[in-house]
Design goal:
This protein is an all-alpha fold and 188 residues long. Helices cover 50% and strands 0% of the residues. The protein binds iron/sulfur cluster (SF4) (2 copies).
């Protein structure tokens, strides 16, 4: 039987699966497919690939399947899988890098989680924190769901859970430096 060369993943979208994993600080070969991550993932029921399968496909260099999957966009970064993994594989960091690779490849996930992701990060980059009302309004505008959440807005405003004042942290430059460092020179 022919051995699978794990270092020869196809650079289908400019970067190999190993390169993308390395950006997340993940060595794909650390995973031995025990499945504990998938068994504990609270979002697994909605995923089209189990977290374990994402890693397996990346080990095999099956890039296109991973980049077209909804799973990376559904990952809630809750870190349950990391706490259960006997190999300390950082799956949420890997999912984030896969999302970036998927976006760079021109893929658009269903229901606009990429829009939410972009707006959230840009909000943090600009103000150092997210401002829910503006985040909600922009998301509705850019995702094409103009009136989504509108019925809840008056109640949330009255309760003070959202507001028109834009809150900013003092040292926004420090926050930007952190994000820039994480992005490694790439644009948001
Ligand atoms: S828990 Fe860790 S080692 Fe086990 S399948 Fe998931 S990532 Fe791989
Ligand atoms: S971090 Fe993502 S993959 Fe891991 S358990 Fe949470 S939702 Fe699932």
């Amino acid at each position: 039987m022919e051995a699978v060369d794990l270092s020869a993943s196809k650079a289908r979208y400019g970067k190999t699966t190993e390169q993308v994993a390395a950006r997340a600080g993940v060595n794909l070969k650390d995973c031995y497919q025990c499945g504990k991550c998938s068994a504990g993932c609270p979002v697994a029921h909605a995923m089209d690939l189990m977290p374990r399968e994402v890693i397996r496909l990346m080990q095999l260099g099956s890039w296109e399947t991973v980049l077209n999957a909804q799973t990376p966009w559904l990952c809630a970064s809750c870190i349950t899988c990391v706490s259960r993994c006997p190999q300390d594989v950082n799956l949420p960091a890997l999912m984030e890098e896969v999302r970036r690779a998927s976006k760079a490849a021109g893929n658009r996930p269903a229901n606009g989680p990429d829009v939410f992701n972009d707006l959230f990060l840009k909000g943090i980059y600009t103000n150092g924190r997210s401002n829910e009302l503006y985040m909600m309004m922009r998301y509705n505008l850019f995702s094409g769901n103009l009136l989504q959440d509108a019925p809840n807005a008056p109640h949330l405003l009255m309760k003070g859970m959202i507001g028109f004042k834009v809150h900013k942290v003092k040292d926004r430059e420090a926050v930007r430096r952190i994000i820039d460092t994480c992005l490694g020179g790439e644009q948001l």
